[in-house]
Design goal:
Layout: H1 2-10, H2 13-30, H3 37-51, H4 63-78, H5 82-99, H6 106-132, H7 135-158, H8 174-197, H9 202-224, H10 233-241, H11 248-261, H12 265-277, E1 282-289, E2 292-297, E3 302-308, E4 311-317, H13 323-384, H14 390-413, E5 423-425, H15 426-436, E6 443-445, E7 454-456, H16 457-477, E8 483-488, E9 493-498, H17 505-510, H18 524-535, E10 538-546, E11 549-556
Helix pairs in contact: 2-3, 2-7, 5-6, 5-8, 6-7, 8-9, 11-12, 12-13, 13-14, 13-18, 16-18
């Protein structure tokens, strides 16, 4: 049990890193010419394969990979020199430096920063001086390699950090690693150039190279995010990262065109998934949504799951995701999810619009039927009357009632097309309205001869029937009030007024804009009449609401668009 615990303890990333550095340090102390340096470096490479952050150290190595590792190790040890050691330390510095950005814990980041300091000091103050035969620097590096760097390794060993297993380590960002490798290579080769061309000693050449690199980095930092009108390198680099594997603008254009062309949410989702599957670095896709599920391509071990609303999208790649590609995948999946949700809302709005049209049509037809039943009741009273004019009145009113019944039946057959109402001359409609209500005590006012202008008769009937019916019911509770209906033209305008009490302010504020609760009902008739008027270019308003003069005005809407 103790052996098992010790094995799992040593297999953590922190201790593997420390053992790897101790073996490397032993080889550096001996020097590349010592025959014992090769066994230490071979052991160092073995521990590196367990620690390396590019692949999981516990994965089974195939025969091809084993041959490649053995061949590379044999060649490196056969041609072992200070140049080979410098190249290896530079690459190791890039790998370790790229991992600093992956951790938020300050002790873990301090650990990797100390490892970077160790590798940088060993490279610049021991390996490179031996490479360039800088005797004065070698003497100073001797003290460093024997006394200072071992203390640094001891500090790394006692740092209070969690011992995370190797399997939980994060993948190194290739861009960061490459930049650090190139920067350190430039430092070494720049020092060699100054030593050869300027005949300087190593420390002078190193300081001059460092100074030039600092100036270049300051210039790049200024150009990265400038303040003098230039868009900056940051914009260009970000655009490059967002174009991983495909031109981002072209893909967005195709996605937007699919959103405009496909009206159904399910068909749009299938189209968008096919567009995403065309990316060359993807091996397969799977999705689950409210409209169904499906899959495309082949699944792999490298998967990313993105949840956006009701859409769950699983993306499978051919290779391991790096941070830039991962950002790209999340962005593309979110765009598909947003467009998909927009299509769902659009479909819901269409359904609501259809239901609202049916509801409004049914509401208006209910009021039409109510008015027709009232007309039938009046005609029944006339038919039972023994007056001589009864037969003449029936002959006048029955054709009008028949016409309204036919119009109502046509609305029931095509409720969504009722905006196509039949037209009637305004003078004929006015005469029919007066004849229909000739037994009511209503004062009819007109400027004389009306123009021969067509109007939507069904709309005018609906509005005036509601207004007159409300006024007559008000007279039942307030006997003696007068009612008048006035028509005018240029522009065409109708006014229905009564001399009763005003409408309460609370009800008047919402009367034509919503269904309101009142003593006589819910105000649905006037609300539906106002909505229908707006759809056909007319306007129904309360023109006056004071004691003795309560007036509703119905006229063509002549306001400017957007007013």
């Amino acid at each position: 049990m103790l052996t098992l615990d010790l094995s799992s303890y040593l297999r953590t990333g922190r201790w593997l890193l420390l053992i790897m550095l101790i073996l490397l340090h032993s080889a550096l102390l001996l020097g590349v010419d010592n025959p014992w340096a090769r066994p230490f470096l071979l052991a160092h490479l073995g521990v590196f394969l367990l620690w390396q952050p590019m692949w999981h150290g516990e994965r089974e190595v195939g025969f091809g990979a084993l041959v490649f590792i053995a061949l590379a190790a044999m060649l490196a040890l056969y041609w072992l020199s200070w140049w080979t050691t410098a190249f290896w330390l530079t690459g190791l510095f890039g790998l370790v430096g790229a991992r600093v950005f992956a951790y938020r814990d300050r002790w873990t980041r301090l650990l990797y920063l100390l490892v970077m300091v160790y590798l940088l000091a060993a490279l610049l103050l021991w390996v490179v001086p031996n490479l360039f035969a800088a005797k004065s620097t070698i003497e100073a590096g001797y003290i460093l390699i024997w006394y200072v760097l071992p203390l640094l390794l001891l500090v790394i060993a006692v740092l209070p950090i969690n011992n995370a297993p190797v399997e939980s380590t994060q993948t190194v960002d290739f861009i960061y690693s490459l930049l650090l490798f190139m920067l350190l290579t430039l430092l070494v080769l720049g020092s060699l150039a100054f030593m050869s061309l300027g005949h300087l000693d190593y420390l002078d050449a190193l300081l001059r190279t460092l100074f030039l690199i600092v100036l270049v980095l300051l210039a790049l930092g200024t150009l990265w995010n400038p303040r003098f009108g230039f868009s900056g390198l940051q914009m260009m680099f970000s655009r490059y990262l967002l174009n991983v594997g495909t031109p981002f603008e072209n893909w967005l254009t195709q996605l937007a065109e699919a959103a405009q062309r496909e009206h159904d949410a399910a068909s749009y989702l299938r189209h968008a998934i096919n567009l995403l599957a065309d990316l060359p670095w993807l091996s397969g896709l799977s999705w689950q949504s409210a409209d169904g599920s499906g899959q495309l391509g082949q699944f792999s071990e490298y998967a990313v799951v993105v949840q956006e609303g009701e859409l769950r999208l699983s993306v499978y790649a051919k290779h391991q995701f790096n941070p830039a590609v991962l950002l790209h995948v999340h962005l593309l999946a979110q765009l598909i999810g947003y467009f998909y949700q927009a299509k769902q809302r659009e479909q819901s709005l269409r359904d609501i619009t259809r239901l609202q049209a049916v509801y409004e049509t049914g509401s208006r037809l209910t009021h039409d039927l109510k008015n027709m039943l009232q007309s039938l009741l009046s005609l029944s009273d006339i038919a039972q009357s023994r007056e001589e004019r009864a037969q003449q009145l029936l002959q006048q009113q029955l054709p009008l009632l028949t016409q309204r019944i036919e119009l109502t039946l046509s609305k029931l057959k095509q409720p969504l097309l009722e905006s196509e109402t039949p037209q009637l001359a305004v003078n004929a409609w006015w005469d029919a309205l007066k004849m229909q209500n000739q037994f009511q005590a209503i004062d009819w006012r007109s400027p004389g001869r009306l123009p021969d202008k067509n109007i939507p008769a069904a709309l005018f009937d609906c509005v005036l029937d509601n207004l007159i019916d409300n006024a007559l019911r008000k007279r039942q509770s307030e006997p003696g009030i007068s009612i008048f209906v006035e028509i005018d033209f240029e522009p065409l305008r109708l006014v229905v007024c009564d001399s009763g009490t005003p409408i309460p302010e609370v009800i008047a504020a919402k009367l034509l804009h919503a269904a309101v609760v009142s003593e006589n009902g819910l105000g649905i008739g006037l609300y539906q009449a106002a909505r229908w008027s707006e759809q056909l270019g007319y306007r129904l308003t309360i023109a006056s609401n004071r004691p003795g003069r309560v007036c509703f005005e119905f006229m063509a809407d002549i306001r400017e668009p957007g007013a």
